[in-house]
């Protein structure tokens, strides 16, 4: 069972005329690759009416509602993360509550607030009793501030993970740019931090280093916005991993992290 | 299948395994890649990159799987001798990455090189980048190749043919539609950095530029060699078009040498 733990979809307020084509393209490519489940989020309006990484509460509510509708349209293919902005605590908690009621499987944090900020604690507290993993957008080794986002790196996420040992954190896209070697050092001693392999980066040695750093038990396959690089990484893993380890990375770990009913 | 973007030898900025020719050959065997256009990776960072060419020629002489893409620094005295050597060794192209050489892309040395390459019928190969700029070593600050540089080369030397590796959709479109049809017919792009679904940049470019402009290239072993194959497998390509990208275009490019 192949699970893409880092997928995205678009909607009619995402500011792009081709949003339907992009959604269809993801699903079509997923069929070709053999993706059983796309676990997806929608980051507000993708910058159209509020910034992608600082989405407004109303944009998040709309996006989460559209994602719930997509899950309903594709009940055997799409699962959803509730995307929240931790600067709006009450709204975030209400979105999580509403999402869980509708079967959402995780929480997505983009880059609206540094990962180790106390404002993320209530979000994690809400995720814990519902067994929701928290997928956190990460800049691999953030050496300085970046425009358009309050980016966090692995060290900062691990501080949050240390405070919430019973929550599973998915460190987003080690292939998504930045210095993944820094991330691999940061996460070694944090057993509740899992790495998603998504991103356009296909650096030689990255997958082998990730396996050495955390083992197949803490790696999750994903694609993000480039399914081609995701498939390339999957093909590489199919060659180097034992079947039992490959099964963990491609779906077994996800089955363990997400709520039991997520992939039923 | 011909991979036009292969780099042999150690990388100065991080440890990478599988950089020896025999190891790259094993990957090629596994993926069905018959031959590769190869450069010597370490010497791209040397003060005189041509010092890596004898090793490259030796590798290519030993294994017909590799075709040499030697590096030349046109800012060094008597670089023309390195070009003559490349011609003698039947190099498939010559590479000059102005950012790595510390040269202005449209300065006199680069323009003299492109003139000489055009005269020899030898393609110029240049990379936009070798790694994602966000992940590079703090001392690896060489500027990326810019689209205006490629446009400038094409305009400066009407006979020049250029192969650009590691370019994304925006770069490719900027050069293609910023050039006349005659100019853009002299530049080829590898698909190592062009996104597939769901953005479908590669499918879009194949529809707008046509398959004759694209080459199969991976950037291995700095990047996973599986990537361009996955990209092609995600397209609904006519087999003839796929054959052009995988082999035909590179073969035609290599065989259209104009003897001086």
CATH-level-2 architecture of chain A: Alpha-Beta Barrel
* Radius of gyration of chain B (Å): 17 Å
Tell me the CATH superfamily of chain B. Metal-dependent hydrolases
For the sheet with most strands of chain B, the description reads: 5 strands, parallel
**Widest sheet: strand ordering of chain B:** 4-5-6-7-8
Question: What fraction of the residues of chain B are assigned to beta strands by DSSP?
Answer: 5-15%
- Specify the biggest β-sheet of chain A: 8 strands, parallel
Strands of the widest sheet of chain A, in order across it, are 1-2-3-4-5-6-7-8
The CATH topology label of chain B is TIM Barrel
CATH class descriptor name of chain A: Alpha Beta
Helix/strand-derived class of chain A?
alpha/beta
Number of helices of chain B: 11
Note poorly predicted spans of chain B: none
Structural commentary:
The complex is a heterodimer of chains A (264) and B (260). With 264 residues, chain A is an alpha/beta fold. Helix content of chain A is 41%, strand content 14%. In chain A, strands 1-2-3-4-5-6-7-8 form an eight-stranded parallel sheet. The mean pLDDT of chain A is 97. Chain B has eleven helices and eight strands. Helices cover 40% and strands 12% of the residues of chain B. Chains A and B meet through helix 1 and helix 8 of A and helix 10 of B.
């Amino acid at each position: 069972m192949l699970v893409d733990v880092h997928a995205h979809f678009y909607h009619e307020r995402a500011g792009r005329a081709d949003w339907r084509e992009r959604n269809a393209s993801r699903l079509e490519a997923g069929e070709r690759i053999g993706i059983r489940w796309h676990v997806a989020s929608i980051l507000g309006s993708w910058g159209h009416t509020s910034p992608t990484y600082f989405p407004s509460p109303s944009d998040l509510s709309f996006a989460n509602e559209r994602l719930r509708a997509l899950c309903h349209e594709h009940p055997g293919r799409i699962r959803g993360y509730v995307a929240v902005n931790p600067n709006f605590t009450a709204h975030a908690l209400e979105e999580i509550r509403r999402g869980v009621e509708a079967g959402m499987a995780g929480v997505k944090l983009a880059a609206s607030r540094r990962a180790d900020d106390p404002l993320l604690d209530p979000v994690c507290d809400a995720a814990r009793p519902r067994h929701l993993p928290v997928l956190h957008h990460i800049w691999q080794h953030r050496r300085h501030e970046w425009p358009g986002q309050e980016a966090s790196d692995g060290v900062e996420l691990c501080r949050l993970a240390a405070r919430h040992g019973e929550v599973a954190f998915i460190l987003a896209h080690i292939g998504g740019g930045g210095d993944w070697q820094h991330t691999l050092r940061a996460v070694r001693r944090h057993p509740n931090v899992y790495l998603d392999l998504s991103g356009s980066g296909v650096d030689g040695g990255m997958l082998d280093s990730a396996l050495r750093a955390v083992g197949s038990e803490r790696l999750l396959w994903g694609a993000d916005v480039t399914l081609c690089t995701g498939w390339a990484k999957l093909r590489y893993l199919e060659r180097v991993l034992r079947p039992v380890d490959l099964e963990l990375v491609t779906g077994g770990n996800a089955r363990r992290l997400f709520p039991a009913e997520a992939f039923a | 299948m011909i991979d036009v973007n292969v780099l042999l030898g150690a990388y100065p900025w991080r440890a990478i395994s599988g950089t020896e020719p025999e190891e790259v050959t094993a990957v090629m065997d596994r993926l069905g890649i018959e031959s590769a256009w190869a450069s010597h990776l370490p010497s791209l960072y040397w003060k005189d990159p041509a010092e890596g060419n004898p090793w490259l020629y030796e590798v290519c002489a030993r294994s017909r799987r590799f075709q040499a893409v030697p590096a030349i620094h046109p800012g060094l005295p008597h670089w023309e001798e390195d070009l003559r050597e490349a011609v003698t060794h039947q190099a498939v192209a010559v590479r000059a990455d102005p950012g790595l050489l510390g040269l202005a892309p449209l300065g006199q040395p680069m323009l003299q090189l492109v003139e000489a390459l055009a005269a020899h019928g030898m393609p110029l190969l240049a990379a936009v980048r070798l790694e994602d700029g966000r992940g590079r070593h703090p001392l690896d600050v060489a500027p990326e190749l810019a689209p205006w540089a490629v446009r400038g080369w094409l305009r400066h030397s009407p006979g020049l043919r250029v192969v650009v590796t590691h370019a994304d959709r925006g770069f490719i479109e900027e050069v293609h539609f910023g050039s006349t049809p005659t100019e853009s017919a002299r530049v080829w792009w590898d698909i190592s950095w062009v996104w597939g679904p769901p953005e479908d940049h590669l499918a879009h470019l194949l529809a707008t530029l046509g398959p004759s402009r694209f080459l199969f290239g991976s950037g291995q072993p700095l990047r996973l060699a599986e990537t361009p194959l996955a990209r092609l497998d995600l397209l609904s390509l006519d087999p003839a078009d796929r054959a052009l990208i995988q082999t035909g275009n590179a073969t035609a490019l290599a065989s259209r040498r104009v003897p001086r």
